[in-house]
Amino acid sequence: KSTLKRFIADSDQMARIVNGRHFQRLSNLLKDPAVAASILHGGGLDAKNLRSIEPTILLNPPLDSAIMTEEIFGPLLPIITVKKIEDSIAFVRARPKPLAVYAFTDSAPLKRRIVEETSSGSVTFNDAVVQFGVDTLPFGGVGQSGFGQYHGKYSFEMFSHKKAVLRRGFLVEAMLRYPPWDEQKIAMMRHLFRYDYVRFIFTFLGLRR
């Protein structure tokens, strides 16, 4: 609360919601009685004052409420408490894959676990949002949070079609491809599909390995 007061001394310093439709959408998230009961700080709405919404902290709102199942895109911060770090990882894994995971910790083992045990578009430690401004990092979601990545060379690669071109000559024809099929041909094809080139050569030469 003291940090909010220091950053935003009065309402003139607060950014406004982009338009009336989104102001109403965010307002509706807070009007749910079960959600309103979880407001720890803030919750003020001022439609007349250029669509202003007070920065709001919510403690343990219902997990099935709209504010916990939709993307917020506003100054509303739900906080869900857990007993141990394993519970927080399980919480992330039990929901649609997020655009980003932000974790604040100095523990190297925990950082490794978060990277390895969760799936998201990106992971940022000890900060938030800044990865979007790093043009050497790909930015994008996974699953329900988006598809593909952009930024710098990643944008070029993502939006470029890579045409496959294969060229071969007329000198040698692999008769293995054509019938009649016998046990040797079938065995050789199996080895090829398994990328077992050593067994393929042995079978081709009529040898056993």
Q: Which tags fit this structure?
A:
Aldehyde Dehydrogenase, Chain A, domain 2, 209 residues, elongated, 34% helix, 3 domains, 10% strand, alpha/beta
CATH class of the largest domain: Alpha Beta
What is the CATH third-level topology name of the largest domain?
Aldehyde Dehydrogenase, Chain A, domain 2
Considering DSSP H and I runs of 4 or more, what fraction of the residues is helical? 25-40%
How many strand segments?
A: 7
Overall mean pLDDT score?
A: 89
Could you name the CATH homologous superfamily of the largest domain? Aldehyde Dehydrogenase, Chain A, domain 2
Question: What gross morphology would you assign?
Answer: elongated
Pfam families: Aldedh
GO biological process, one term: aldehyde metabolic process
Domain Aldehyde dehydrogenase: 12-165
InterPro entries: Ald_DH/histidinol_DH, Ald_DH_C, Ald_DH_N, Aldehyde_DH_dom, Aldehyde_DH_NAD(P)
Which SSEs are present, and which pair or pack?
Blueprint: H1 2-7, H2 20-31, H3 33-36, E1 39-41, E2 45-46, E3 52-53, E4 56-59, H4 66-69, E5 76-79, H5 85-93, E6 101-103, H6 108-117, E7 123-125, H7 152-158, H8 183-193, H9 197-204
Parallel strand pairs: 4-5, 6-7
Antiparallel strand pairs: 1-4, 2-3
